[in-house]
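Quick entry, no commentary yet.
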Amino acid sequence: MTGGQFKYHLHEDCSGFAFGSRNFHLDILKLYFAPKEPGGSSIPLKFNFGLHSVLFKILAIFAPHFDNRSYINQFMYAIVNIAGKQFKVTKDQQIYAPKMQGEVDASVEFDQVLFADNEGQVSIGAPMLDGAKVSAKILGHVKGDKVIVFKKKRRKGYKKKRGHRQQYTKIQIEDIVL
C-alpha cells in the first residue's frame, strides 16, 4: 500500500484531530502535528502511507479510550504498603496482595499510606500520611501460577523438578480516607 493518503482535520483549539467519527486528543498522546491557523479554522492534514500509517494504526487501536476525556483527574488513588509491598489502589479495585490472616468477607484496614492524590490534591507522607487509611474486604485466598524449579547437573544423573505456587489474598478496596 503506497501512494495513498488519509485526510484529517485538526480541531479548532488544536486539542486533537478527527478522522471519521473518531476523535484523537493530542494533549493526551503528546503529539502535536501543526500549529493553530490564524483564521481559527481547522487545518487539513495529509499523511502518506509509511511511518504515519503506522502511527494512524496505533492511534486507531487506542482511540476508543480517548474519546471521553472526563476521566482525567476525577478519581482518588493512594499508594499503600501492604505486607511489605507497595500498591497503587483506587476505590473498588481488586488486587492480589501477599497472603494475610483473615476470613473471607472480613474487613481489613491499612494505615501505612505513603502517597495520596484526591482529584489533583497531592499528599505526600514523610514517610506515612497521618490519619490516612485504606479499608478493604477480603474476597478469598488464592494461589498464583505454578513456577517450576528445575535443577540439573550434567553427566551426573542429578535432576530435581519442584513446583511452587505462591499464596495470595484477593482483596477489594472499599474506601480511601485521608
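second:
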Amino acid sequence: MITLYPIIAAVIIVLDQLTKFIVRTGLNPGEKIYIIGEWFSITFVKNTGAAFSMFAGNKFVTIALTSALILACLIFIIYEIKDDGSRFLSICLTFILAGGIGNLMDRVIRGYVTDMLSFGSFPVFNVADIFVTCGCFLTVIYIMFLNKEKTSTSNSDDESKGEVNSEYKPESNKNSEFNQSNGDQNE
C-alpha cells in the first residue's frame, strides 16, 4: 500500500503541471476562454500570493508556508503508514501534499502560481488548489465523523473481549463506611 501514495501524488502533480502548461502556452495573462457564458471560464492569472492571493508579492512567505504544509503532510503520512493508520486519511493528506508540491513548483520556478479556473466572482484557482481543498475538507470529515466511529468501534471491541479500562477507579462507598461506623456505635 505504501507505493499507492507516491503514485497518487505523481498523477495529481502531472495533471496540475500539464493544465498549467497548456494555459501558459495557449493564453496570454488575463485572457479568457468562456466555457459556460460568463459563469465559467478558463482565465490565465499569475497569482503571486497564497490562497485567494493572500500575501501577494511576498515570495518568501508563500514558499515558506507551502513548504511547511508539505512537510507537515509528509510527516503525518509517514506516521499513518508506520502505525498502520487510516488509508483514507493518508490519501487525504496525499491530496494536500501533491497540490502543495504542484503550486510550490510554480512559485520556485516562475515566481507565481498559474491559476486558470474561473467560476463567477469566485477567485481563480487551479487543479492543485482543487486537491488541496478536497484533501482538507475530507480530512475534516475524517476527524469529525470517521475517526470517532473508529474510536468507538475499538472501545466496543475492547468491551466485547472483556477488557476493562484500568484507569477507572470507583470512589469508595461512603455510605457503607458510614453504616459500619454507625453499626459500631450501636453495639
